[in-house]
Model the fold of this input.
Amino acid sequence: MVYFYSDPGQDHMRSRIENQDCCLWSETANCTAIVLTDGAGTCQYAAEGAQCAANALLSLLLEQSEHCFLADEKELTSMIFESVLDAQKQLASSMKTDLTELSSTYAALLYDQSRQQVMCISLGDSIILQTGTNRSRGIISAPSSSRYGTPVSTTEQGFQDISIERFNVRGDESFAICSDGAWSMMYSRNRMKAEFRASLENDDFAGLHERLQNERPEDDCSFIAISLKDLQKSGLSRNSLKRQDKDSLVSLLVMNQVRQRIEHCLD
Done:
């Protein structure tokens, strides 16, 4: 099962700016990948940059899934960074804009069911968590920053800031990727609020969605979650469509509109 929620923040709604986060997922016979990207708010084409990064990363993970678990970390980080960067360079050229106007953070999880292995990737200020009560890990990937600010897809030598974790799983775990707009609502004074902790411990992603919505965050607020156990039981496509609520479908429509604009620019 894959569940996602993505809504524009109050600040963007007041300014009539569209959601600059993007959540995507897909699967092959053996692998499932989920991706969350967050366009840099100061960039002119943040939403387009996030969509471009998400598409590029999702395609890479599924097309090179075996290599993702076999390659050494240095080669893998370089491959991921260059693949996303090349896609954004192509888009920037087509749109006749500066590459930095498409800057985005990104985070992703790749699950290989045949290997029973997971790979987590993060560049920027998103967070990747293992959820549920019987978890061996808590925070898998924490937000990263430097004295130069949050690293993004167009950061020079940005591959050095990519976090990669690969590990074995039992097949009954759950994971969530949260944008900075989401996790900043979930924490207070460096501790997770009790109501959010309860949702994550119970894999109550609908409850997490409701609580985030009630917080009315200023920033765009998104998460994407995956339950490996439910995924194995009934398959991704069928369950993910059942679990999408009205808000998620509206967000999906927004992302499709962004995708159409990108494809128009590339024609």
